[in-house]
């Protein structure tokens, strides 16, 4: 079924100029409800005469953009190409268009009628700069909306030199709104895969202004691309760097609490794996772990393949889960979210069962989407509310 506006375009009732103006004013993609819990979503591109266009979305087995079968169809007599898909009405997802040239070259671009939102650039190149669609019944992310409308001031930047790792990296430190004397003891969150324009400080500011979380410092730690995969995969040396070098460096410069209950380590994907594993092994330093779609199926000996050898393969228990099972219950609190449509959710559910059975204080959530910053940016607000809620006692001291 064609979208009603595309129908008007194809019959000539609307000119291409009017259709283009409507898209720029109201946004894309076009959405038409077809049942109580399904919609038809029409994506529109204007790629030029020689290009063939396909769609890629961050939902599917690939930790990145998954290609959708079928190409955009031309709308006769116009420069537009369209693709209509039936979808669950509660999805939120990042997506890109792939324009294929006549000689086989291709380029990935955001939706020209739905520009990437603020905070769309991230440390992992393949996720950066995507458009985001929030379908009619998607759970709202109000604190992200406020963060996008009123971003935090630029964070202080510095270079941390590590003797343990023999390298250096950028660190950005964002103080909460207000004035804090040197004798303060502010809670803080260290966020892995940091960038100077990360959403976390702005989400924090929105919550602090609303009086819902304690004023907390956000520390963003960069992961240099060539070393990221090695650093974040349950690496004892990297975890020691955080504890023995980054923490003293921060305490020397900022009025931070030394209570482990006031310290959170956060990350997404590999970063979430590192946050959970590091907190488990250093509970006297990190009293809170924020795991967003953690790669908790990781094990260094785990390989994938097909063929007869698979019939004899014995898969080891993933590292983070195995270590949780083997260790005494640590005094850490765990916030854990994952997309119900990403391939890692089986391991996330497994990890949550282990943590719950061992008596951890944990909050586990699944969202209607994939391995996606479109959700992580907003749900980070719920993690801060879990870690550092502004209690009545806190209010009385303001």
From TrEMBL:
Q: Which domain of life is it from?
A: Bacteria
Q: Which InterPro entries match?
A: AB_hydrolase_fold, Esterase-like, Ig_E-set, Mycobacterial_A85_antigen
Annotated Gene3D superfamilies:
alpha/beta hydrolase
**Matching Pfam families:** Esterase (PF00756)
Q: What is this protein called?
A: Enterochelin esterase
Q: Which organism is it from?
A: Actinacidiphila alni
């Amino acid at each position: 079924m064609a979208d009603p506006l595309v129908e008007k375009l194809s019959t000539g009732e609307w000119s291409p100029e009017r259709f283009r103006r409507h898209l720029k004013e109201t946004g894309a993609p076009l959405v038409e409800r077809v049942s109580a819990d399904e919609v038809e979503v029409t994506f529109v591109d204007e790629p030029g005469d020689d290009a063939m266009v396909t769609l890629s979305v961050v939902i599917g087995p690939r930790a990145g953009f998954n290609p959708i079968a079928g190409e955009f169809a031309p709308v006769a007599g116009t420069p537009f190409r369209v693709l209509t898909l039936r979808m669950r009405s509660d999805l939120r997802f990042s997506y890109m268009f792939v324009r294929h040239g006549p000689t086989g070259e291709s380029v990935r671009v955001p939706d020209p009628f739905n520009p990437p939102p603020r905070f769309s650039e991230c440390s992992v190149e393949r996720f950066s700069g995507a458009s985001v669609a929030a379908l009619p019944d998607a759970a709202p992310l109000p604190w992200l909306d406020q963060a996008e409308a009123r971003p935090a001031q630029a964070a202080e930047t510095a270079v941390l030199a590590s003797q343990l790792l023999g390298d250096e990296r950028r660190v950005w430190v964002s103080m909460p709104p207000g004035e804090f004397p040197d004798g303060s003891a502010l809670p803080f969150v260290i966020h892995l895969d940091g960038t100077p324009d990360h959403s976390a400080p702005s989400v924090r500011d929105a919550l602090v202004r609303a009086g819902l979380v304690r004023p907390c410092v956000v520390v963003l730690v960069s992961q240099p691309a060539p070393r990221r995969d090695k650093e974040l995969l349950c690496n004892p040396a990297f975890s020691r760097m955080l504890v023995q070098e980054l923490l003293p460096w921060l305490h020397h410069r900022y009025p931070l609490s030394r209570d482990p209950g006031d310290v959170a380590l956060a990350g997404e994907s590999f970063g979430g794996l590192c946050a959970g594993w590091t907190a488990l092994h250093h509970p006297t330093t990190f009293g809170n772990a924020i795991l967003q779609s953690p790669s908790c199926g990781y094990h260094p000996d785990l390989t994938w393949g097909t063929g007869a050898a698979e019939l004899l393969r014995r898969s080891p228990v993933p590292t983070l889960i195995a270590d949780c099972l083997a260790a005494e219950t640590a005094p850490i609190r765990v916030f854990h979210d994952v997309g119900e449509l990403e391939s890692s959710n089986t391991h996330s559910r497994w990890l949550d069962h282990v943590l719950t059975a061992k008596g951890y204080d944990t909050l586990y959530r699944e969202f209607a989407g994939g391995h996606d910053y479109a959700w992580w940016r907003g749900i980070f607000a719920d993690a801060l509310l879990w870690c550092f809620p502004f209690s009545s006692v806190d209010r009385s001291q303001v």
